[in-house]
Amino acid sequence: MSKGLNTISADAGVVGLEQHVEPQVMHFSAPLPLASGASLRDYHLMYETYGTLNAARDNAVLICHALNASHHVAGVNEKGERGWWDNMIGPGKPVDTNRFFVVGVNNVGSCFGSTGPMHTNPATGKPYGADFPVVTVEDWVDAQKRLMDNLGIAQWAAVMGGSLGGMQALAWSVHYPSALRHCVVIASTTKLSAQNIAFNDVARQAILTDPDFHGGHFYEHGVVPRRGLRVARMIGHITYLSNDAMAEKFGRDLRKGDDYSFNYDVEFEIESYLRYQGDKFADYFDANTYLLITKALDYFDAAREFGGDLNGALAATRAQYFIASFSTDWRFSPETSHELVKALVKNKRKVTYAEIDAPHGHDAFLLDDPRYHNAVRAYFNNIHIGGVA
């Protein structure tokens, strides 16, 4: 097990981490017990840090990533790519790295560096493929807790995430109540609806039935189930956008001419967009990882261990909460956040709730919206650090 705290000091007043951010690796030799009953041994986590851990070590913020994101949260990596939440995190940004030491971590099962299906299974000497154990949101949180311990952080100032990342933040507050002071849950839910599970399964079936999937061991065949990944991404992408945003951006516009071609080629602009997104996704994402992550989404139910009683699930929590939802997010609608807020209030927790009237659907949590960013900024500005409890 290795330790290493490679911090990056941000220059005050500079908006944006322009210097390259170097990913780091932490190895764990102790097996990680999983909810499935399996365990993961000899694994590693990829992570990045931004800002500086203060003397009191109480300004650390953990960022949990959503479905196809990674540890690269902010700044520019070695490939010249900006972090997936670069508009939210950095010097002078809503989560200000002039004040906070931010940790972005990549979960096990991912295809972005942490141990996952593409890595070697120590039991066989071959890539895990479909033999990689099914993981849950709570398993990820357990792995993140080990990272936290090895970084020498006793308590997070905040754990923050959007969508699937919000589920992880919520799980942190339920399972490790004394390990965080603030829980920031954005565009997320306490559990998926039947409709959401249905979308996920259709996407998985697209991958599982791709002739190039080879039961999940396609690495050994030198192929990629591109068709399945492509369709899975197209299905997912539809759910990330609102009807209004799609109508405004594409309408019923045709790519060429002003009349129908009466065939099944790409004809409407929306078809072209979805196929482009699907092709791009199939170029960089792993099919087994997609299966694992969507299953983790399906399995998450914050109240399941408490007989379905969300009030009971939150009874032992200690954190203060910031919850945000977006009016046109039909995948994780504001109503799901209302349920969480009500349960927290019933447990007499301090809760700040922001419902943003935004047209972009679920993806709004990744976009620049002054009202949304100002609400996050105001909340983080009121988080006490520097040894203040």
Q: Could you characterize the architecture of this molecule?
A:
The protein is α/β, with parallel strands linked by helices and 389 residues long. The protein has two domains: 250 residues, Alpha/Beta hydrolase fold, catalytic domain (Rossmann fold), CATH 3.40.50; 101 residues, Rna Polymerase Sigma Factor, Chain: A, CATH 1.10.1740.110. The protein has ten helices and twelve strands. Strands 1-4-8-5-9-10-11-12 form an eight-stranded mixed beta sheet, sandwiched between helices. Strand 2 and strand 3 form a beta hairpin. Helix 3 packs antiparallel against helix 7 and helix 4 crosses helix 6. The two termini are 31 Å apart. The N terminus is likely disordered.
Largest sheet: 8 strands, mixed
Radius of gyration: 21 Å
Q: Please tally the β strands and state the result.
A: 12
Query: Globular, elongated, flat, extended or rod-shaped: what is the shape?
Result: globular
Tally of distinct domains: 2
Strand order in the sheet with the most strands: 1-4-8-5-9-10-11-12
Query: What top-tier CATH class of the largest domain fits best?
Result: Alpha Beta
The named CATH superfamily of the largest domain: Alpha/Beta hydrolase fold, catalytic domain
Label the CATH architecture of the largest domain. 3-Layer(aba) Sandwich
Overall average residue pLDDT: 94
What is the terminal separation in angstroms? 31 Å
Please write the string of helix (H) and strand (E) elements. Answer: EEEEEEEEHEHEHHHHHHEHEH
As residue ranges, the low-confidence spans are 1-15
CATH topology of the largest domain: Rossmann fold
Give the helix level as a range of percent: 25-40%
Number of helices: 10
Enzyme class: transferase
Subcellular location: Cytoplasm
Active site: 163 (nucleophile), 329, 362
GO cellular component, one term: cytoplasm
